[in-house]
Amino acid sequence: MTTQPASATPGLRLEPADFGASEADWNDWEWQVAHRLRRPEDLDAIPWLGREEIDDMRRVARRYPFSVTPYFLSLVRWADRKDPLRAQVLPSPAETLAPEGGSLDPLAEAEHTRAPGLIHRFTDRVVVLATHRCAVHCRHCFRKRLWKEPHARNDGLRWDQVIAYLEDRTEVRDVLLSGGDPLTLPDGGLDEILGRIRRIRHVEIIRIGTRIPVVLPQRITPGLCRTLERHGPLWLVTQFNHPREITPEAAQACERLLRSGIPVNNQSVLLRGVNDRAETIKSLCQGLLRIRVRPYYLHQCDPVAGAAHFRTSLCEGIEIISQLQGTTSGLAVPRFVVDLPGRGGKVSLQPDPILSREKGRTTLRDHAGALYAYEDPAPAGFDPGAETIQKIA
Ligand SMILES: *Cc1c(COP(=O)(O)O)cnc(C)c1O
What we know:
This protein is of the alpha/beta class.
């Protein structure tokens, strides 16, 4: 943003006119990308920030740079200094005050990297980092290490290595394109990458992990959808974290993807101060179902450098799931998952409804806490003489 907003819009929200954008500019994703706020002086354009606040943000940004689209910034309500959308995109002093101990690579992805930008941790699926670029830098990002990495000099050579690895590993049936954000690539580049992956016989599905529908929905153009449609079966996984992110623009982006035969799933991150109340997650997930997006995972926030202030206790996530279960559509209940440190993978954490197991009888608890004796046939291979059934692994 090069110009100061002409006027501070009433209601303490920035509007297209404040960025000097015409309606056509605003709906043009390339305009949005070109006008991202990412330099220290860009913060002067937000009339409701105090001088001290701006100085703090600039200091934090030297360690963890910021980048945000005018569109996403227009959703922030500036009257609330703790606005949940603002907290996800603008630097906060908490990022550098946080106790050390977070990692720049909490999932040990470097250790599982088998070709440049290809992470193979689970047998039948791999993650391929399609690019380092993102439209927005999420403050809780677990791949912050990529923000400052130089872009590959010869990306063609890198893709040759990635494709050669995939061709060689016939056990891989699911390729997850991530990044950075794959949808920051131009349509032609995506078309080529997807085409090369699709030509590998044993690859059954391609997933695209992207926050574009949330932070730059204008990018989901009919042309992009036609490109994606050519390479199906393709699944898209996005990241809505707060109900206010479900705007008409985001809904339209998802609608276009769905109409192109691309199922849209959502992976939220559970973030302190953003969505750490059961009502917020419930309203988010119900809102997602209204736009036909399936809540897939709710992620425990990883121990990422500079993001300790976002982290909640595991028991809070389990409690949120327990408050959703039985009080809303099962489709609206995501799986709460945590990435185990280092070599581990994801595990899913559930409220445990099993109170006890005895021969022929298991005692279960419903979501309201009432107990039920359930007549329970013995498992296969069970020794009929045994009185108690050990926990079935
Ligand atoms: C999360 C993840 C996947 C995908 O996991 P699903 O549970 O299948 O969604 C694949 N590879 C890596 C390295 C991951 O971290």
